[in-house]
């Protein structure tokens, strides 16, 4: 009895950085809320830890903004991201978003859903998994800007780095721009699986 068919190829996509211009939003908000505190341009930090090298005052400013209600609701979407996700779906890939909401920001999780509805549409919002441990989520690929993703399990997915200043030069497959998605995903999904 043939009960099990081949699983579809599943691409998990992180939200902050690959889909939402998180760092750009953080810099803009911080400069607005703390105009007298120095805030470096987005795309210039070389460490994943965004507080590294900051003064106490700079650290306070950035951490305060990260926890401001509504911060996650006002981010700009990354150009080409929406089109790439729908192209993946049309190519027959399973696409799910996989994001770790900030527990310190009281509206982060709900803002993410509202933000996705507005910028990506309900079809994508319905495909959103919020988790504190991405290693527990099953998939073939995880596109994520975080240099190292660990958790309770050995992940089933292959990590594709979404290119940012703080992960330049790290080994492994990467996507630096959404226009590259089909070449990179196709290489892992096999011939004919991607557009
Ligand atoms: Mg991210």
Q: What keywords describe this structure?
A:
single chain, alpha/beta, 6 helices, globular, disordered C terminus, binds magnesium ion
3D structure, described in words:
There is one protein chain. It contains six helices and six strands; from the N terminus they run βαααβααββββα. The two termini are 32 Å apart. The chain has 195 residues and is α/β, with parallel strands linked by helices. Strands 3-2-1-4-5-6 form a six-stranded parallel β-sheet, covered by helices on one side. It is globular. Magnesium ion binds at residues 14, 16-17, 144-146.
Question: How are the SSEs placed, and which strands pair?
Answer:
Layout: E1 10-13, H1 22-33, H2 56-66, H3 81-90, E2 94-99, H4 108-119, H5 122-125, E3 128-130, E4 141-144, E5 158-162, E6 174-175, H6 181-189
Bound molecules: magnesium ion.
Magnesium ion binds at residues 14, 16-17, 144-146.
Entry summary:
The protein has six helices and six strands. The protein is of the alpha/beta class and 195 residues long. Helix 1 (22-33) crosses helix 2 (56-66).
């Amino acid at each position: 009895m043939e009960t099990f068919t081949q699983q579809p190829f599943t691409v998990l996509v992180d939200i902050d950085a690959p889909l939402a211009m998180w760092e750009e939003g953080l810099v803009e908000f911080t400069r607005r809320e703390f105009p007298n505190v120095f805030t470096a341009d987005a795309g210039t930090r070389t460490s994943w830890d965004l507080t590294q090298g900051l003064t106490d005052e700079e650290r306070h400013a950035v951490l305060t903004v990260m926890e401001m209600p509504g911060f996650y609701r006002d981010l700009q979407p990354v150009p080409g991201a929406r089109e790439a996700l729908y192209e993946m779906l049309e190519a027959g890939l399973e696409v799910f978003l996989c994001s770790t909401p900030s527990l310190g920001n009281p509206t982060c999780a709900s803002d993410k859903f509202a933000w996705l509805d507005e910028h990506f549409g309900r079809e994508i919002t319905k495909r959103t998994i919020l988790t504190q441990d991405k290693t527990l989520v099953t998939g073939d690929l995880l596109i994520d800007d975080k240099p190292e993703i660990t958790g309770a399990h050995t992940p089933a997915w292959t990590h594709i780095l979404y290119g940012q200043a703080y992960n330049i030069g790290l080994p492994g497959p990467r996507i630096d721009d959404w226009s590259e998605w089909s070449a990179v995903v196709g290489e892992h999904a096999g011939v004919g699986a991607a557009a």
